[in-house]
Design brief:
With 461 residues, the chain is an alpha/beta fold. The chain has 8 helices and 17 strands. The chain has 2 domains: 372 residues, Alkaline Phosphatase, subunit A (3-Layer(aba) Sandwich); 76 residues, Arylsulfatase, C-terminal domain. Strands 1, 2, 3, 4, 5, 6, 9, 10, 11, 12 and 13 form an 11-stranded mixed sheet that branches.
Length: 461
């Protein structure tokens, strides 16, 4: 790659993969050789955070460079038939790169809303029984900067159980789902639908996109937004991954994510573009603390962090983030700088020389200098948001949460302040990574300072 050439960019975002799920982040019961190899050739970010502790708002923030709590969605996630969350006029990561000369593709879980047409003119029913699947779907990837797309609408535990390719449903969902895995919701499925092949198909589509693009337009850079459904429930591994880990079926699904990364990496090497490609591997939020059978198998999916998916504690939103960019990022390195996945858009903008205008990616800050070693300091501050809508802010060593409890799944979810007790939580993350010693009452100066910073952030756009 010449000095002036733009890199291909691949962003791989797993669903509910925790900070402790990868070998390069300390996992011993789940083999992840492909991602570990990427880490040995690039950098592991050790203080990277999703913008939310649950799926939809995290994905919204990556695609727009904007905190999702600024949108209509203030807590939790969208369901499979809810309308688009990303405003049609808003610049997205994909449309920015598209305008910068990139070919763009979205493959995997979408989960930021689609505009469906119903047969009765009413809102779609939760199971999609009144949806007209023949009518093209609007407001999705192809309307937001992606040249091509092959996606499922939400998580693999919600209807509709079908693929959507370039705005058209693949195989009409006409029959009730044939087999419900644990915790899957009712709905219709397309003929031949198999839960255990969904991510295999995504991998095949991603590899085909790379192969086809290189054969037809090798001189044009591409952006691939690849978002597997794994390891989110229902955790149904394909046959080749069954028993691949020592952490149950969910652990097996983490190995599927690793396998997908391996398939993509093989395609890059086969096509001679590995050195021309920036690849990022991460997750949309933290993991559940235990498998869906109630066991943890001696594996800590969120590492030593407190909390889990949906929580305001770091287990809910601190993510593994492995980045490889040959000749740009130091191989086998670790970085402790504070960064957010919301920063991907500003980072890519700086890489391609796109001048973000006012209102575009307002909450995104470039981490390019951190990746290339030109700077060591990360963000001054970063806002966290739990599934239930609790806010926190990280600034330097301090983390302030505006509430007591997890704000998510862990108990207690919410606690009422006791007379004379703390109104929220304050932790020194440098010496108290596990968030055990609440210093709210001991450091009222820090509480006041961080609260003011958070208030100022609310007023920014």
């Amino acid at each position: 790659m010449s000095e002036c050439a733009l890199p291909n960019i691949i962003y791989v975002m797993a669903d509910d993969m925790g900070f402790g799920d990868l070998g390069c982040y300390g996992a011993t019961k789940i083999p992840t050789p492909n991602i570990d190899r990427l880490a040995s050739q690039g950098v592991c970010m050790m203080d990277a955070h999703s913008a939310s502790a649950v799926c939809t708002p995290s994905r919204y923030s990556v695609l727009t460079g904007r905190y999702c709590w600024r949108s209509r969605l203030k807590r939790w996630v969208l369901w499979g038939f809810e309308p688009p969350l990303i405003e049609p006029e808003r610049l997205t990561l994909a449309s920015m790169l598209q305008q910068s000369g990139y070919a763009t593709a979205a493959i995997g879980k979408w989960h930021v809303g689609l505009q469906w047409t119903t047969s009765d003119g009413e809102e779609p029913l939760p199971d999609g029984a009144n949806v007209d699947y023949v009518v093209p779907v609007k407001g999705g990837p192809n309307d937001l900067g992606f040249d091509q797309s092959f996606v499922i609408t939400g998580s693999l535990d919600m209807a509709p159980y079908c693929f959507v390719e370039n705005g058209h449903v693949v195989g009409l969902p006409m029959e009730p789902k044939n087999k419900y895995e644990p915790q899957q919701r009712s709905g219709l499925e397309a003929r031949g639908w198999k839960d255990d092949t969904v991510d295999v198909i995504f991998a095949d589509k991603a590899v085909a996109f790379i192969d086809r693009h290189v054969s037809l337009r090798a001189d044009q850079p591409f952006f691939l937004y690849l978002t597997p459904s794994a390891p989110h429930r229902p955790c149904v591994p394909p046959k080749f991954a069954a028993g691949a880990s020592e952490a149950g079926m969910r652990g097996d699904m983490v190995t599927v994510v690793d396998w997908i990364v391996g398939q993509v990496d093989d395609a890059l090497e086969r096509n001679g573009i590995l050195g021309d490609t920036l690849i990022m591997v991460t997750s949309d939020n933290g993991a559940r603390a235990v498998n869906y059978d109630g066991n943890d198998y001696g594996h800590r999916s969120c590492g030593a962090l407190r909390g889990q998916k949906a929580d305001i504690w770091d287990g809910g939103h601190r993510e593994p983030l492995v980045i490889r960019w040959p000749s740009k990022v130091a191989a086998g390195s670790q970085c402790d700088a504070l960064v957010g996945l919301v920063d991907v858009m500003a980072t890519c903008a700086e890489i391609v020389g796109y001048d973000l205008r006012e209102g575009e990616a307002p909450d995104s800050q470039s981490m390019l200098g951190i990746l290339t070693g030109e700077q060591s300091q990360g963000r001054d501050s970063l806002v966290h948001h739990s599934g239930g809508g609790m806010f926190a802010i990280r600034q330097g060593d301090w983390k302030l949460s505006l509430g007591l409890g997890s704000g998510g799944f862990s108990q207690p979810v919410y606690e009422h302040p006791e007379p004379g007790g703390p109104m929220g939580q304050l932790y020194n993350m440098r010496v108290d990574t596990l968030e055990q010693t609440n210093q709210w009452l001991a450091r009222p100066d820090v509480v006041e300072q961080l609260t003011q910073t958070l208030v100022e952030t609310f007023g920014q756009e």
